[in-house]
Amino acid sequence: MSEDSRKALIERSIPFLAEVRNRTAGNDLESWLNTTYGPDSELYQDLARLIRIGVVEEGWAANIEVDGPRYRRSVIAEPTAETHYFSITAVYMNSIERYRGQYHAHPYGELNLVVPVDPGAQLVGPNGWQGPGWTAPAPGSHHYPEVRGGALIALFYLPAGRISYDIRPSRSTGAAA
Predict the structure, then answer these.
(1) For residue 114, which of 33, 168, 21 has the smallest C-alpha distance?
(2) Are 142 and 104 in contact (CB under 8 A)?
(3) What is the distance, to the nearest Å, from the Cα of residue 117 to the centroid of all Cα atoms in its chain?
(4) Which of the residue ranges 14-18, 55-59, 95-99, 115-119 would you say has the lowest mean pLDDT?
(5) pLDDT at position 175
(6) In what order do the strands lie in the sheet with 146-148?
(7) Phi, psi of 122 (to 5 degrees)
(8) What is the pLDDT of residue 177?
(9) Domain residues of the chain, as ranges?
(10) Is 153 helix (H, G, I), strand (E, B) or coil?
(11) What class has domain 3-159?
């Protein structure tokens, strides 16, 4: 494991987290993230490169199996003053057929950098399927993470590190609320 690439990812995230720390996840922030820090931006390129190194090359990120090797995650940084009280977590999901992960809720929302490993891989977000770019589920939202088209990495930032896996899906669809 290279502490250098892990440390670089955290250090590269800190100025970004300082910039978004007082914003609320949701449609407006998702649109702003994709406009300001979309796939062609330096920030997206740097974070995507570093998280690919951590998952694909060095194996220090998304290295804990949730549902076998196709669905893995790990916390990279706990919420601290240095990270503006955001946690940093990586999830790796691999699917040729559409695949659903573990149902969960975002008490304070989530900022999620979507990094396809395979061209065409997408993650469903509150506004539909997302390839390279960002999703930003609002506070109180809950969903199954879903992937289609291959493997991808989701690098997500959680305010106060809050995520809940003890919520149950609604009887209707279990989709985002």
Answers:
(1) 33
(2) yes
(3) 14
(4) 95-99
(5) 44
(6) 99-100, 146-148, 122-125, 128-130
(7) -140, 150
(8) 38
(9) 3-159
(10) strand
(11) mainly beta
